[in-house]
Amino acid sequence: MEFTRFCFLVFSVFFIYNVCSVHGRFYDYPNVSRFRALSQISMPPSPAPAPSPSPAPKDDPTIDNVKNSSNDYAAGIFNVLSYGAVGDGVIDDTQAFKMAWDAACQVDSAILLVPKHYSFMIQSTIFTGPCKSGLIFKVEGTIMPPDGPDSWPKSVSKKQWLVFYRIDGMSMKGGGLIDGKGEKWWNLPCKPHKKGINGTTLPGPCDSPVAIRFFMSSNLTVQGLKIKNSPLFHFRFDSCRDVHVDSLYIKAPPQSPNTDGIHIENTNDVTIRNSIISNGDDCISIGAGCYNVDIRNMTCGPSHGISIGSLGIRNSRACVSNITVQDSTIKYSDNGVRIKTWQGGFGTVSNINFNNIRMESVRNPIILDQYYCNTKNCANQTSAVYISDVIYSNIKGTYDVRSPPMHLACSNSVPCTNLTFLDVELYPAQGQKILEPFCWNAYGALMTLTIPPVFCLLEGTPQSLPSNDLDQC
């Protein structure tokens, strides 16, 4: 009897072990989604694939938010791990991001989740709309491109990395990091700091990708992200409207070439707020076709400051209006607030307000330059972008004594008009000597006595202005 019970117990244990292990293998099979068909991201989105299980990294048992459950899917969360992303910073996760985008794009209020504790390497990609409203691209982990020009696919453009095209009502946010890995791009022989004979740049390929570009999109919010070391501009908005940028942290070395923090072109109704930018070019640059731009509470520098321009390159038309920069600090930078235009351009820059700005050891705190040239061989031309109605108020702090604190160089043929100065106080960061401002063909008014005094500013208005320039915008 005892022997019979013993045999029955052994048989029961053997049966349970085999059944359960088979059941476990069936539901824990990893990375099923990596074998899905490749995404067609440039085409209209296809039906959303069902999410599949995603493994958490074995060396981090604390992560509890990376697997998509059926509840996540019902709530509209599309975790890139559920579409085959590995997130080790080496394996190409581009297709997983494309498929997650295709799925999220056709769901109202969807969240495309880039989870924390992972690093995702993505090739140059265009995320195309239109999508359903309320889409959130939530970056909690790290996103990075291929490592330098030699790792970039030969058949892919080197001018851009992540592009969002024809998107309406999207938010890009999160506490994660976008690492542009720009070091190898900055060292290309053609870059401005790589000088050859007679100060010219050296020959060779020069295209470098903008890290994140929004093109022909509207109702955009970019918030809370950290982005560093872009090969070229960090963010670029082209032909967009209703853009809201808040609480960004952008960082690149002071000598990194053309690494503008935020650049806007042909874009209107923009707010940029509460951000810290330190880089190798303009913190914010405003190109042609921009209007209704409000910039506040920025900390900028080391950098090249906050710039309108350059405008009018290659005899082009430039129209910029209703720009406000206020309640901000610019420190240890080549420039403070700047308007720069090329000779030969046409159009207008008007209704510009620089208010309540703190300068700390800035080389050119206030600079208006209608003779902008990035080489030594720019020809003199008579046509110019007309600049008028610019207010400089409550601008205080210190300047680097290598340059005058105010530089107002306006065109010989198209003078600047209606420049207003109010409560401007700029002192040398070192020494006691206060340098005199520089003015050329600049007309305006001093509402209060400035430090240093801008006695070179011409009063009233010029006798004549070329009407054809005024009628272009």
Automatic annotation (TrEMBL):
Listed Gene3D superfamilies: Single-stranded right-handed beta-helix, Pectin lyase-like
Alphabetic keyword roster: Cell wall, Cell wall biogenesis/degradation, Glycosidase, Hydrolase, Secreted, Signal
Major place of residence: secreted
Compartments reported by the entry: Secreted, Cell wall
Renumbered residue ranges of the record's region Disordered: 43-65
PROSITE patterns tied to this protein: POLYGALACTURONASE
Annotated signal peptide: 1-24
Chain intervals with Pro residues compositional bias: 44-56
Family matches, as InterPro entries: Glyco_hydro_28, PbH1, Pectin_lyas_fold, Pectin_lyase_fold/virulence
Active-site feature positions: 304
Single GO MF descriptor: polygalacturonase activity
Source organism superkingdom: Eukaryota
Matching Pfam families: Glyco_hydro_28
The UniProt record lists the keyword Signal: yes
GO BP, sorted A to Z: carbohydrate metabolic process; cell wall organization
Family the entry assigns: Belongs to the glycosyl hydrolase 28 family.
UniProt-recorded name of the protein: Polygalacturonase
